[in-house]
Structure formats: C-alpha cells, structure tokens
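Researcher: Quick test of sequence recovery. Tokens follow.
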C-alpha cells in the first residue's frame, strides 16, 4: 500500500463511522416517533375496521328515532364475559342470550363477585361482533360506563339495558356483546 492510500484510509473509515452513527441516530428517532404515533394509528385502525367496537365516535349515545318495534324480525344477542389476566373476580351474564325485536329494549344483568380479601375496582370494556353491527347495538344503561368497586367477598348485580336499532342490516340475525373485565384498582 502506498503512502497516499494509507493516508486516505483513516478518512474513509472516519467517514463510514460518522455515516453509520448518523443513520443509527435517525433510526432511533424514527422508532421513538413511531412509538408516539401508535395510539392514534391504532384508534384510526379500530375506527376503520370496527375492532373493539370503535366505529362510532359516540358509541354510547342512542340516536333518537321514531319509537317503533319491528316485530317481524328476531335478533339473538349473545353475552360473553371474560376476565383480563390478573382479574380475580367471578364475572358472568345472568343469561347467555336474549332474543329481541329491533327497537325493543332488552334488559338483563351481569353478576360480579370479589372472592379476594381486598377491596378491588374493575372496569368492563365492551366489544360487539359482527363489526358491521357495532353502530346498531346501543347500550342505554351499562355497568361499563363507570368503574365498579367491590369489597372483599361482595357480590354485585349490574344492570344492562340495550336496544338493537331498527336500521340493523337485514342479513344480521345474531349479535355478540362481549365484555372484558380489567382490574383497575391501582388507577384509583
């Protein structure tokens, strides 16, 4: 290797190292920005796809329509109760399924029991399937609107009042309303 080649080599290595460091910093900044963008991107994704029942910006607001019951249609509404990891309550619907006519109120109850020896706070998060039906199942009264506090050994009957909208597409005959119960004691 000539003297000139030896003199040029450290500059090439220095330039290559500098370029790698700059690229690494840009990638790290991009990853950091992507982390902040994940929540709004997830909300948009859920709104577009209906995932987790997030298609309506006001999902709990019942849009008033002429109060009439469509007795020509029967809609089966199934109820599913699950617990998130770490939630030790017993949690179940009083009945696994009801049949309602669109426009007719459906009234039922969920039961929660705290079998632990400590006071706990729970929050239920609803989800509706099929996703297409999300905007047509209205929860008029729901335990999911607020957190639920149970003392040790306490059992609570929690009301749920729903209305299936008369505008529900005709091909939908069965809906599933599922709730996942989370332990939010540490947040209160």
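Model:
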């Amino acid at each position: 290797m000539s003297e000139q080649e030896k003199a040029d080599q450290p500059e090439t290595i220095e330039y290559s190292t500098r370029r790698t460091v700059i690229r690494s910093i840009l990638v790290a900044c991009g990853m950091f920005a992507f982390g902040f963008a994940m929540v709004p991107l997830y909300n948009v994704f859920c709104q577009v796809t209906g995932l987790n029942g997030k298609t309506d910006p006001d999902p709990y607001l019942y849009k008033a329509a002429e109060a009439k019951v469509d007795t020509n249609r029967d809609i089966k509404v199934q109820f599913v109760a699950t617990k998130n990891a770490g939630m030790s309550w017993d949690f179940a619907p009083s009945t696994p399924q009801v049949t309602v006519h669109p426009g007719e109120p459906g009234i039922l109850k969920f039961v929660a029991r705290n079998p632990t020896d400590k006071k706990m706070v729970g929050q239920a998060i609803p989800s509706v399937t099929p996703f297409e039906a999300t905007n047509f199942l209205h929860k008029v009264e729901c335990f999911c609107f607020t957190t639920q506090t149970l003392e040790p050994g306490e059992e609570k009957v929690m009301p749920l009042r729903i209305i299936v909208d008369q505008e529900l597409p005709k091909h939908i005959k069965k809906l599933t309303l599922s709730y996942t119960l989370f332990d939010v004691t540490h947040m209160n």
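The longest strand covers residues 120-129.
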